[in-house]
Amino acid sequence: MTIHDFSDKKAHKIPITMITSYDSWSASIIAECDIDCILVGDSLSMVMHGSRSTIDADPQLMALHVKAVRAGAPDAFIIGDMPFLSYRKGLKDAMECVELLMKAGSQAIKLEGVRGHEAIIAHIVASGVPVMGHLGLTPQSVHQLGGYKVQGKGAQARQQLIEDAKALEDLGCFSLVLECVPHALAAEIAQLLRIPVIGIGAGSEVDGQVLVLHDMLGLSSGPYPRFVKQYLEGRALMTEALNSYARETRERQFPSSKEQYA
Ligand code: KIV
After folding, report:
1. Which of 112, 169, 179, 188 is catalytic?
2. pTM exceeding the 0.85 threshold for the entire prediction
3. Count of domains in the chain?
4. Residue spans of the chain under pLDDT 50
C-alpha cells in the first residue's frame, strides 16, 4: 500500500480497511491479514497505558510504539498519530515530532483538527510527509467537546465540518478520518472530497473504516461505543484460557508428560 492506493481505492469504490496496532505481536498478526494499513493511534495511551484520555501520549511514547509495530509488520503502511499539542507548539516542535514518527517507521502521520494549524499541515505536506486529517470527534479536544459525543449535529456544526474537511483536502492531506458523525453528513463529505474519507462511527457510505483493534476483538473492558462491532469475545476467551492454566496447574495436570523433558 502507498498513498496512491488510497486514491485508487476511492476511484474504484473499494473500501479502505484500517486497524490500530501498538505492538509488534499484534502487528505481525495484522500483517498476515487482508488489512490495508495500520494506525498507531494515540488511543494507545488509554488501551495500553490505562490513561483516561489520549492527552497523556507524547512524541517519544508514540515513536516507541511505531517502532514496535514496524518490527512486527515490516511491509505494512503505517500511519503514526501526532499526540496532544505536538502540532500546536509551533513549527519546530511539530517537525521534531514528525521526524521522530517517520524515523521510527511511519509512512504517514495523522493529526486532529485544522483551524489554527493550517500552516503546519502545509509545511509537513511540503516536506514530503503524507498527512491524514482527523475531524468530527477529535479525542484530544475531549474537554472542549464536553465528552465523547456525536459531532456535526445542527446546521452550524455541520457547515463547519464540511468546510474543515475541504480545508484539509486543499492543504494536501491524502485522506481523512471522520469520527462519530451522523452517517448522512459523513456520506456527503465523502462525496464532496476527492481524498478518501475513512470512518469510525460515520456509517457505511464513506471510503473506508477504521476500528481500534482491542475493541473489535472484544479485549477492552468496555463499555464500547455504539459504532464498535465486536468480531471476537477476546476477553472471555483469554479469561477462560488463563483460568484453565491456573486450574490445571493447581491440579497438577499441567505440565503433563507432553510438556516435560525426559
Ligand atoms: O487514536 C486512534 O486510535 C484513532 C482512531 C480511533 C481513529 O485516532
Report:
1. 179
2. yes
3. 2
4. none
